[in-house]
Design goal:
This protein has one domain (2-257). The protein is 70% helix and 0% strand. The protein has nine helices and no strands. It has helices at 2-8, 28-50, 53-80, 93-107, 110-129, 141-162, 174-194, 210-217, 221-257. Helix 2 packs parallel to helix 6. The longest helix is centred in the last third of the chain and has 37 residues, at 221-257. The protein starts with a helix and ends with a helix.
Length: 258
């Protein structure tokens, strides 16, 4: 029983698990968890879509509250169990997603909506699909914290997206670009000084889409990462740009038809 609790509360960044003890990328366990999270998030999005403005506001606060609880709760637990390390600082993308979700809940703006869609959504989806915590056993509190917080980030954005409260616009992509331009240089400095890997700027997570980028680009890894982000944005924004273009064409043709 003592061994179970030690494993359950063990933080992989503090003490690595033995090889072969993790649930594994794309294993039946991983896929089963993703299905469970998709079902949970889908039900929340469905409830959000069916709610009036008051109910939607309550749900936004609830989702944002869960994100804060999971992030702060993890840090408290790490401190209490003596496992806090420099890589536990709130400098990961999910920590920024927490800030932007709360900010958007309090005072939604073009900046919060565009950053949530362009950066937080793909970052959370990538984390769920290729988790860097796959080397940990599934019966571990930090594994479920990681799965849950990323699920709530995706759910928050999808709830706002499917109700057209977030309407991505390519003309506003400069907002997340400026955010990255401001936050990446100091993050790189922190990584250098503390030997951390925030934003995966130092090295890719094994099995992630960034791993082949590092193999291909080598010392130009950051350039490859930037190009990958650009390709992802192309696919994310192309449908919205196409819809907007079709609406403009229809609007231009309607007077002529009349």
């Amino acid at each position: 029983m003592q061994s179970f609790f030690q494993t359950f509360f063990q933080f992989a960044a503090f003490k690595a698990f033995p090889p072969g003890s993790g649930f594994g990328l794309f294993s039946p366990t991983h896929l089963g968890v993703l299905a469970l999270l998709a079902l949970t998030g889908g039900l929340i999005v469905r409830a959000y879509r069916r709610g009036d403005e008051a109910r939607r506001a309550r749900l936004r606060w609830t989702i944002a509250g869960f994100i804060v609880f999971l992030e702060v709760g993890k840090d408290i637990l790490l401190i209490v169990t003596g496992q806090w390390v420099w890589s536990s600082l709130p400098l990961h993308m999910c920590s920024w997603a927490m800030i932007f979700a709360v900010w958007d809940t309090i005072n939604s703006s073009k900046l919060t909506r565009e950053v949530l869609y362009a950066l937080c959504l793909p970052g959370a989806v990538a984390a769920l699909a290729t988790p860097d915590w796959a080397s940990s056993p599934i019966l571990n509190i930090f594994v479920w914290q990681s799965f849950s917080i990323h699920m709530f980030i995706v759910t928050y954005v999808m709830a706002r997206l499917t109700t057209h409260e977030i309407v991505p616009q390519a003309s506003r992509l400069w907002l997340p670009v400026v955010f990255l331009a401001v936050i990446v240089p100091p993050t790189m400095l922190v990584n250098y000084l503390l030997a951390t890997n925030y934003f995966f700027l130092s090295a890719p997570a094994p099995g992630s889409p960034l791993a082949p980028i590092a193999d291909i680009f080598g010392p130009l890894y950051l350039l490859g990462m930037a190009l990958l982000v650009g390709v992802i944005w192309l696919f994310m924004y192309a449908p919205w740009a196409t819809v907007a273009w079709r609406r403009r064409v229809r609007a231009a043709l309607m007077p002529a038809a009349a």
